[in-house]
Structures are given as C-alpha cells and as structure tokens.
Design brief:
Layout (H helix, E strand, L loop, with lengths): L3 E4 L6 E2 L5 E9 L7 E8 L3 E2 L6 E9 L3 E3 L2 E3 L6 E4 L5 E4 L4 E9 L3 E7 L3 E3 L4 E6 L3 E5 L2 E5 L3 E6 L4 E7 L3 E8 L1
Antiparallel strand pairs: 1-17, 2-3, 3-4, 4-11, 5-10, 6-9, 6-11, 7-8, 7-10, 12-19, 13-18, 14-17, 14-19, 15-16, 15-18
Length: 180
C-alpha cells in the first residue's frame, strides 16, 4: 500500500470566478473532470456566496483568521468541521478579515464518507483513506512513518487493513470513503 502526499504550499492557487478568494486544490479523486471527493484549501478575501453543488455534502473548517459566519453559525479556527448540503450555497460573512479554510466535498450518491478528528485508528479495508493536517506531523501507517508538512493531505486507495496513527500539533482529520 502506498500513500500519496501533497502540501498546499506546493499547489498554485487558482482565483475564484467571483474574485472573492483563491483555492488550492489538493485532490479531485478519482479524476478532476468527474470527482467523487474534492479537497482544497481556500483563502477567502471578502464576503460572498458559496458556489452551489447539488448532490454534494460539504465539510468546511476555518484554519486561520478570525472566522466566518454561514447562516446563523459562527465558525472559527478552533471549531469542528461544519458539514452541510452543498446545494444550499450559504452566504459567507468574514468576521474580522480574510481567512484560510479547509473544504471537503463528497458526491453522496457515489458512496459513504466519514470524517473524524485524527487519533490512532485501525483501517479494515475500504476504498479510500485520507488524512489532512493543519500544522503537520507524522503519519504512521503499518510501522512506516511519513512526515507531513503543514496544510498537507495524505491519502491511499484500497488500503490494506493496518493500524494508522498521526502525531502532530493542531487540528487533523481522517477521511474514509467507501463505494455505495
């Protein structure tokens, strides 16, 4: 089983169509044209509407900056990931200036995605497993250690059953996807 790793700092940012920010796409899996999972780091520079993605479940988290307001929810960097229906396209209000944010999107009809705070876990198969870390650290997968830079995504397709552990500071999340 091999893991792929990409850091946001190694990705060229792309300007949004509405000119309100930038996105660094870390992964569009299994391919960019017809993705099942899409994971990115965004820099929001001004208030505005999120794009609508019908049939998509989204997870959103503030990584740095004072925070944002989506609907009646105020989200800051110490909050859990916020999950919502991607078709709803909420208005995003910056609380005190720009933010850097984590964005995970999943096409619900194609499988099941679970997202949880990183801790040691055992993987018993599955179709795709990923780990995102805000401040970096070490991913131990089956006794092999991979160093992760800040704002990194590590992932593996069709992982063998094995123990996984993450050691690091700050927020980090496991993502496990299985086909429907």
């Amino acid at each position: 089983m091999s893991w792929s790793v990409i850091a946001a700092g190694d990705v060229t940012p792309q300007r949004w169509k509405n000119d309100g920010g930038w996105t660094r796409e870390l992964l569009a899996w299994p391919n960019a044209a017809d993705w099942t999972l899409r994971i990115s780091v965004a820099d929001i520079e001004r208030d505005g509407l999120f794009s609508s993605f019908p049939g998509v479940q989204r997870w959103f988290g503030v990584l740095s900056g004072a925070g944002v307001r989506l609907w009646d929810y105020q989200l800051g960097p110490s909050e859990e990931l916020f999950s919502f229906d991607g078709a709803l396209a909420p208005d995003c209000e910056l609380l005190k200036g720009p933010t850097r944010d984590f964005n995970l999107m999943h096409r619900r009809a194609l499988g099941k995605l679970t997202v949880e705070a990183a801790a040691s876990r055992t993987i018993a198969g599955g179709d795709w497993v990923g780990l995102f870390t805000v401040e970096g650290g070490e991913l131990d997968h089956g006794g092999r250690v991979t160093k992760l830079a800040p704002l990194s995504l590590a992932w593996c397709e069709k992982p063998a059953a094995q123990a996984l552990a993450f050691k690091g500071q700050g927020a980090a999340w496991w993502m496990v996807w299985n086909e429907a």
